[in-house]
Amino acid sequence: MDAHQYCQTLVTRSGSSFYYSFVLLPRETRRAITAFYALCRELDDVVDECREVQVAAAKLAWWGGEIAQLAQGTPQHPVTRALFDTPQGRALPQALLQEIVDGMAMDLTLTRYADYASLQVYCHRVAGVVGELAAQIFGYQSDATRVYANDLGLAFQLTNIIRDVGEDAHRGRIYLPQDEMRQFGVSETDILRAHPTPAFQALMEFQFQRANNLYTKALDELPKQDREAQRPGLAMAAIYRALLHEIRLAGFPVLQARVSLTPVRKMWLASKTWLAA
Q: Cα–Cα distance between 191 and 166 in angstroms, integer?
């Protein structure tokens, strides 16, 4: 299996919504974004699958070194070799790739966030920067597109946080800002024991409104001249925003279940948005 096949297999196996936004891209761009997503998947798996903090920290440190190797033109891992094999992958700034690694490392020491401002730091590193780099791979003319891409990445991450409240609690993590939990009268015990309450519903509605407003803000920030190039991001936004609304429609059952969209619906949303952009 060559490097690009490795990345394609990893992305396909993950079942991510992002996959449906890549399929209509030109071959070279598709290979670059698939390799980049595979890198993010590898980093995320380190945090989610390593039970020992020291082992996970060592693996992330290795990835930091591998990103330096990528910048020097001597990558060793299949995903970094695949990135280096594309013009867009070779052009990704080392500092921003390292910032993603630093964001993933936050999960090894931080399991609570005092307020939204502190959560934003984490979301920027693991999602906002990812959005910026993805936008660079797709191509843009206006620097304003970087602002759009960062905000869209934050909206994606807030959607993930809402969707995964229960799963994250099983790992001992609560990403909901603690001051907002107190404001709505939601205790850590309610979340850790998967005990839904009217207060929890109100808290989730508050999180929904913030994420939904961020989608609106991001989409309004995208310059017209870059809409066509950024069609993959717009397709992702359509899928993720539909997921966000589906979670709300279902009554925020996120403590006990994971809400998802069917593959057919994801493909339909991606295709519809792609053609309309």
A: 7
